[in-house]
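Input (Ubiquitin carboxyl-terminal hydrolase 47):
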Amino acid sequence: MVPSEENQLVPKEVESAAEEPRVLCIIQDTTNSKTVNERVTLNVPASTPLKKLFEDVASKVGYVNGTFDLVWGNGDNVTDMTPIDQNSDKTILDAGFEPGKKNFLHLTDKDGEQPHIMQEESGTTEDSAQDRFIGPLPREGSVGCTNDYVSQSYSYSSVLSKSETGYVGLVNQAMTCYLNSLLQTLFMTPEFRNALYKWEFEESEEDPVTSIPYQLQRLFVLLQTSKKRAIETTDVTRSFGWDSSEAWQQHDVQELCRVMFDALEQKWKQTEQADLINQLYQGKLKDYVRCLECGYEGWRIDTYLDIPLVIRPYGSNQAFASVEEALHAFIQPEILDGPNQYFCERCKKKCDARKGLRFLHFPYLLTLQLKRFDFDYTTMHRIKLNDRMTFPEELDMSIFIDVEDEKSPQTESCTDSGAENEGSCHSDQMSNDFSNDDGVDEGICLESNSAAERIAKVGSEKNSLLYELFSVMVHSGSAAGGHYYACIKSFSDDQWYSFNDQHVSKITQEDIKKTYGGSSGSRGYYSSAFASSTNAYMLIYRLKDPARNAKFLESHEYPDHIKQLVQKERELEEQEKRQREIERNTCKIKLFCMHPTKQIMMENKLEVHKDRTLKEAVGIAYKLMDLEEAVPLDCCRLVKYDEFHDYLERSYEGEEDTPMGLLLGGVKSTYMFDLLLETRRPDQIFQCYKPGEVMVKVHVVDLKTESVAPPISVRAYLNQTVSEFKQLISKATHLPAETMRVVLERCYNDLRLLTVSSKTLKAEGFFRSNKVFIESSESLDRHVAYTDSHLWKLLDRHANTIRLYVSLPEQSPGSQFRRSIYQKPSGDLGNLDEACERVKGPAGNMKSVEAILEESTEKLKSLSLQQQQQEGDNGDSSKSTEASDFENIESPSNEIDSSASVENRELENQIQISDPENLQSEERSDSDVNNDRSTSSVDSDILSSSHSSDTLCNVDNAPIPLANGLDSHSITSSRRSKANQGKKETWDTAEEDSGTDSEYDESGKSRGETQYMYFKSEPYTADEGSGEGQKWLMVHVDKRITLSAFKQQLEPFVGVPSSHFKVFRVYASNQEFESVRLNETLSSFSDDNKITIRLGRALKKGEYRVKVYQLLVNEPEPCKFLLDAVFAKGMTVRQSKEELLPQLREQCGLDLTIDRFRLRKKTWKNPGTVFLDYHIYEEDINISSNWEVFLEILDGVEKMKSMSQLAVLSRRWRPSEMKLDSFQEVVLESSSVEELKEKLSELSGIPLENIEFAKGRGTFPCDISVLEIHQDLDWNPKVSTLNVWPLYICDDGAVIFYRDKTEELMELTDEQRNELMKKESSRLQKTGHRVTYSPRKEKALKIYLDGAPNKDLTQD
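Output:
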């Protein structure tokens, strides 16, 4: 790119200095909120004077030089606010600019005034180097360009001023570059623009919003008169009936052209422009077939709006070199011979014939589409052909017009595939000037006089068929996507321009040649599937005819309605400009206010003109925050505020009449501070906040009551010493400074004692807003090491304590006795307050909560021991209910006097340690959402969420005495393969796969034993709607406590051991997720989180919760949930079936024997591997959390005896009846196709040689329409085994359809077919099982004439 003379930025004396270092300057305009995110880049020689740099920046951004400042910037952070001297003659190198690096500059207001916008001039067509590029992105590496525009998004200057070419660009809404290219081409077509201007919109007859011609008129007027660099196309697309989602759909520009022309023809019916599209763009051709024996010719006349030209013939490696070659190929005839012979009406037999196309008439505006998009059948991808194809600036079409005698064989004809495949040439079967018979256009033998007339007419046209190129629509990218832009020649000055969305620039004929395409190296056919290149896609030529070639209408030639429209649009643009000026001078800043009565911090955005005074701004903020009823206006003021640090930076005393622009430092898009509307009571006075002060929130600590008081705000200076700071606090708190200990919380849980009195606050780490704790007692605690002191422990606890709201299980008659270990003998729940008390006093009949817990723990130990003994004696231990666990247990709280004095219960001692050998194990779940399944009835071992899958972890490493007598130690291995049999120390063993940490370490001691934890609880009344009878606790707890210890602390309030209840964390929308990792702390919890406690037995180590579904292969819904069960590691499949029998009988009403059903793998809804009775979980069958299994009831004896067998589900298709039989299982001894066919033949009675089969597709039951099954499935695959491609049947459960190949398909009438189609559609829709491959469909391009896209919702 070579810049124009007046824009030349290279000093004359160094113009030829190719080796001179260059300086990259990146300028950010901070004066306007619209432009702060844009960057302007200048790449200038190092010898450029500063004065020249300012001139270049002014020219680039559209400001008047001298009305703005440039200051140094470092990315987004200003480091030096001193403006650069714009009158200096120093070079930028001497001024500190660094070559080879990015030099960031901020463009700022000068003396508080906004920069003045340079007066725009429209109509200029001078060459501009800054916008000179033709591709989707600016060209790189151009020699001599000193101001390369490198921003990929258009600069804010594009909003302010028109391109120096004089033309206006179009804004790309998202992916509307194809639309922009076509609109600019139509705008630059004089005949189309003039005709559009002559059409007059009648507002009384149509809504202007939905009128496509009217919106095009408006767009063209704006393109001609606007002073902007680019304008929006949203009004045009809205008239198409498009919504915002259409902007994200990229379409083909040729398709858009055809659809838009159709829409315009519909809108222009019964107007002067009704036939405009046909007059300008429509041509005619003849589609003929000529018998080579008798010369009889059948033909029809087709019309076309564009001619599709093949880039590369099918199957060829060589592309056509030029458009002329492609046009010759378009009319090249083909011979119909052999099986393709043509039935001649005259010969009454099939004969060899010549088929082809002949051009009869070319349009005034000739559109050629280069078919660069194709489909590669090898890779099954759409591809783009980037081959080189030249096109002339002037194209002589006379050689392609048909002038030969109709009686002679035609030699210049072509296959019709080129036209019809593209959908561009369409048959109108219309009467035309070239036929004597208006009613018949097929099978007409032309008479000689008709041919003579036609030849004479065409001969006269041949002399005037010279076309000149004026528009090239270019596609850059691949078949997967890309970018369109247009290269258009102006008929006003014969200059070529690149219209690339919002950018318009001059280009040359050489740039046009670069769009021919072409790629380096030898390439095979379809080798460029994902190649990306830039090349011409559509060419538009205009006939060179001085009599018809029009010029653009001058402004004085406009019709009156266009003159009015021009005036209207100018006024709207001026109004927009004035509004933009107001926006440019409006300060927008965050405003906060602590409401004086509601005591909540409110937030809003304050918008105030920069010339408004502070007093006026207070009035605006006062109304904005709606304080009229709360506080008088004179009790409010605005102060500088930092919301992030909650810091009041300064107040503005005596500056009530100062303009806000000066107070805030000018109009900016973002401010580094906020404003606070501060309020006071009428009897108070405002405190003065000086710059440089820091805010300190002081909390007074009382060691005796172990309390931390609410904060007192104190303002201090960073240069104050700690000693001076103590004196300041002493005045504010009336505490002695001599014994004062000051602890600074620098960040979360970083508590630092300030011991060096001479150190400044800045050195101690104080910042804008700080929090300190002070203590001034004369206790001995002052002399203890800080980290061992009572003060440190209290503050450490304070920093880590959170408040939680715990919902306890609801009281129900069925569960009262189960909680009796913590209840009175009467069976009542007891007073919850009693459990929350610490009972003090000399009375001998009162016990502390700690004593209660000790007794409760002893009871829990004995209960645990009883349970273990029962499990050892009872073979059906896993079937025992929780009721048996809690019967007849005496309450340890029966000695508590209910009249005892009440205090909040506090536990600050060491966590109670339970005997690990007798303590019940912890539980786990995989944190699925609890579906609020009833927890009041606990007759089952399993009280869990609908998808919980819990694993049992024992408290020690001893093997679990399971009901089946097996040891629990086993490893995971595959059902079909034991490749990892020797690897017993794997990561997915039951201990580690369980996802739950043990509560105890190897020595059996509680891991939290040595930690000092805090737990304090009190009854809490929840909000309405939480349920009647629901009991709540408000708990203050140290969040470093483990979940295990937390559950132990909750035991007295729940009424059961911690191993028999679960903790669910309640999130937004009342979603509940189970907390399961007992060794994790509560650190993820925060203040005011809610917790729900639900009853449910914990699993033991090596146990897994399993969801059992029934498999019903011949039912509409083949997958039915039955129950939750518990399977243990080391258990055999037969033992798990024995455990299931009573549960199936009691819960599901299924009275089965152990040999009447099988278990099999479940993968989503697909049945899989059949589990054999001797298989062992974790050894032969991988079992894990969230495991699901199918239960299948057998019709007879189990046929699956060995892992080598294969069970498939077969279904017969009867084409003569158009129906499918029920599923039948076939058990194979091997994967042989021959054996499958033999078994199917035995099952159905079909002779072996007539059996054909196909594998079902998709998810079980692989439903498919009976109208499609016969031809859509891959019948009778050529394989000998089932475990190879394309079958890949390697596991049980595959679906096989089979048929008798001699059975004929039923012939259906249209009525029968429609009826069957409705039934099948309804059936498949109900089952929802039809799964077919469906690639992402491209959304069809439509223009809705009534602006209503919802009129055809059934189509994609």
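Residues 801 and 1038 are 4 Å apart (CA to CA).
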